[in-house]
């Protein structure tokens, strides 16, 4: 005959097992949202945080997460802050990040056969140069010509800085925005400014038409990705792959 204490223990174990079996299984949609950050500066065809009409990139990520039964929160931050939080694992990923030696150290990208998989990029952006109207400063590729001063680049834009340096130019990243750099051009404090075509084109059209001109040849075309922190990817490698694959399908 079972000892009363043993009967009580057995009853507790049976009850615990029953509760586990009856407990609802949490689906992906009930899980914590995927925490993503992006550059707080608006990019016309990319993320447009805080706007009633989101950018294409932002909308695609939200759609991909929804299709996978997940939720994704996208927080606009200063770009350096976004990258540091991802490095620390406090953000699960970054939206609109280029595949560079620096970013490879802090994030995981979609890969194929040891190379970054450009077919699963979020989009492509052209890095272009702007000069004062009538200037003889030239960019015909692959090297800069007649630039007497460092090329003005918005602070924190590492992909643009790398592109300018690769072309043999020095970089002035003292200003925070493209508009401040265009003012430098007009005032003669810079000979060239570099930035993304989708950022510079509307600025020039609306505020600097006739004063500055954009080069037709791109300095570089850069692919942008959703990249995950090492911490998130190590724990959710399968989910990361499904997210990248779904984004590829949406962009077709």
TrEMBL record:
Gene3D superfamilies: Periplasmic binding protein-like II (3.40.190.10). It comes from the Bacteria. Keywords: Signal. Residues 1-29 form the signal peptide. This is Transporter substrate-binding domain-containing protein. The lineage of its organism: Bacteria, Pseudomonadati, Pseudomonadota, Betaproteobacteria, Burkholderiales.
